[in-house]
Amino acid sequence: MSKTTIAIFAAAGAGAGAAVTAAMYSLRSQSERKFDTKATLAPATTGTHSAPIPIPGRHAFTPPTQQLPVPLSKSAPAALGGGGGALPPVDPAGLFEYGFPGPISDIAARSALISSFDRRLRNPQWVVEHITPASLEQREGDRKHSVFLEDEGVPAQFRAKLKDYFRSGYDRGHQVPAADARWSQAAMDETFYLTNMCPQVGEGFNRDYWAHVEDFCRRLTTRYPSVRIVTGPLYLPKRDPADGKWYVRYEVIGNPPNVAVPTHFYKVILAEEDGSSKEGKVALGAFVLPNAPIPNDKPLADFEVPLEAVERASGLEFASKLPPQRRRRLCTDTNCALVIKEYADRQKAFAKPSSPAGLPAPKK
């Protein structure tokens, strides 16, 4: 795979004037992938459920009294102790005695998902789930008994609130869908926390194409005994035709405005061949979809991107410990095609039929 080609493809019109081209960084050559011609190119807890835990950024800071001597750069002025390996005359880490500024990620471990919440954008950074034939076969949960909830585990000044979505024109879009947690009413209820939500376009996306993608993920369990999915928002650049420059622009909802409206969403899928994360092959698929109406006849494969592209755009890593010899490309290993059905019909699936609508009964 060539790593010399780096391109950004911006959103372009697709059906009814909707922008549906995923703006991403591609690491594959033109010969390896055909782009849209319009583009410019932890284990879940059980029982008692924990509230989000504030976790600082990746870097850990050792208290000043426990730090090893760290000399200044050799280029530092001699008056400051540079070049001689002496202790610095300043202690920036002393600030942390008064508190760590962040960034803080609020990690919530629920029964059916684990989420990391971004306090600045008031959206999750990622939400992880795990589905199996057995988990989808159980039908104890019913969506009509669930209600949307603010997550009080996140400090009030950083929390997304129900009123932020009121009359915003956007749906409270699940990152882990409620239908993936029907095995328990409590587990389904937990998917309704706003830390599992992002503002999504309703008609044509959340209630249509996005729902079909979620159904596609569930249908993968007829081929793979274990499917792990990471979902989250992206805020991607788009070229301004007025000056030709690239800008990241997104709407902010709420009063005061504080919840960012993502430009795109990603799904990273790891389908485990033998149901184990320790051995066997893993089929990897990464998809980026614009937060806009998408025609149902648009092939899902059009939104497939290299995993590295999602990592670059999100600043996250998804399979750094998965060796190359265990990897397979999902859309080569199986047919990445959607089964289209009307949203109204999909809603009937929550009436507890014998098997999920549009989803073959998982093999036992």
UniProtKB/TrEMBL annotation:
Among the GO molecular function terms of this UniProt record, one is: nucleic acid binding
Where is it located? Mitochondrion inner membrane
The chain positions of domain ENPP1-3/EXOG-like endonuclease/phosphodiesterase read 110-325
Report the cofactors. Answer: Mg(2+); Mn(2+)
Q: Name one Pfam family in it.
A: Endonuclease_NS
What is the active site of this protein? 174 (proton acceptor)
Keyword NAD appears in the UniProt entry: no
Domain (DNA/RNA non-specific endonuclease/pyrophosphatase/phosphodiesterase) ranges: 109-325
Indicate the transmembrane segments per the record.
none
Record-linked SMART domains = Endonuclease_NS (SM00892), NUC (SM00477)
Q: Which domain of life is it from?
A: Eukaryota
**Annotated Mg(2+) binding sites:** 206
Tell me where it mainly resides: mitochondrion
Q: What is its EC number?
A: 3.1.30.-
Name one cellular component (GO) term: nucleus
Listed A to Z, the keywords are: Endonuclease, Hydrolase, Magnesium, Manganese, Membrane, Metal-binding, Mitochondrion, Mitochondrion inner membrane, Nuclease
The protein's matches in PANTHER family, at most eight in alphabetical order, are given as:
ENDONUCLEASE G, MITOCHONDRIAL, ENDONUCLEASE RELATED
Its quaternary organisation is: Homodimer.
State what protein this is by name: Endonuclease
